[in-house]
Each structure stands twice: as C-alpha cells, then as structure tokens.
Design brief:
Number of helices: 1
Number of domains: 1
Strand content: over 45%
Radius of gyration: 22 Å
CATH superfamily: Translation factors
Helix content: 10-25%
Structural class: mainly beta
Strand order of the largest sheet: 1-2-7-4-3-8
Order of helices and strands: HEEEEEEEE
CATH architecture: Beta Barrel
CATH class: Mainly Beta
Number of strands: 8
CATH topology: Elongation Factor Tu (Ef-tu), domain 3
C-alpha cells in the first residue's frame, strides 16, 4: 500500500551506487545549448498568405527546419522560437549548409529586418 521498495545487498557499495542512481533520477535535467548554425538576413520577402520570409546567407554551420532559433538584432535577442520552413529557390528543403542562401520562416514572428542574425541551436541534456 505504501509503495516501499525493499532491497537486499551483500556489499555496501552496491547499495550506495543504487541510491545515487535513484537520486539522480529525481533531479531536474540540466541542458547545454549547442549552436548548429548562424545566418545573416540580407533581404525580406513579404508574402500575402505566409507573412515575412527572411532571405538569408548561412555564414556558419547549417540551418535546419524545426530547430530552435533566436533572432538577434544589434546584439539583443529579439525572438526565440522555431524555424518552421526553409526554402532554396522555390523548393522546400530540410537543411541548408554554410555558404548557401535560403529563405527562412520563423514561427509566429514577422518583424524581421535586414542585418538580423538567426542562430539555430539544440538543447543537449547534461548528465549530472
């Protein structure tokens, strides 16, 4: 009824190791940010049904669809959310590598300006 877990150990070190594992499972996970790519907004395209599309040049790494992204303007983070679509010419693509140009659409954000920086990143869980 009380959900008490009873365990027997022949060596105290096994009990200590088991307790450490149980306590680590109770800790909230810690995350580290890993920047995947960085792109500079060179042109803005306003489409009636879609909204603002950032015409970008990928300057570092790569930019992928559905990654978390932040928009930086004058060294200040203006927006943080998801990349919802990436296009090369008229083709919808999953990712764009360094040195190429593409159109990036951000989720629920339209206030994009020339010179803005879009950083794509992932959050990696760190073991404690």
């Amino acid at each position: 009824r009380e959900k008490i877990d009873v365990r027997l150990y022949s060596v105290i070190y096994e009990a200590i190791e088991d307790m450490k594992k149980a306590l680590e499972g109770m800790l909230a996970p810690k995350f580290k940010e890993l920047i995947i790519g960085r792109s500079e907004v060179r042109e803005i395209f306003n489409l009636p049904k879609i909204g603002s599309i950032a015409g970008c040049h990928v300057s570092q790494g790569k930019v992928e669809r559905n990654l978390e992204a932040r928009l930086i303007r004058d060294s200040v983070v203006v927006y943080q959310g998801k990349i919802i679509s990436i296009r090369r010419f008229k083709e919808d693509v999953k990712e764009v590598q360094q040195g190429y140009e593409c159109g990036i659409s951000l989720e629920n954000f339209q206030d994009i300006k020339q010179g803005d920086i879009i950083e794509a990143f992932v959050l990696e869980e760190i073991q404690r």
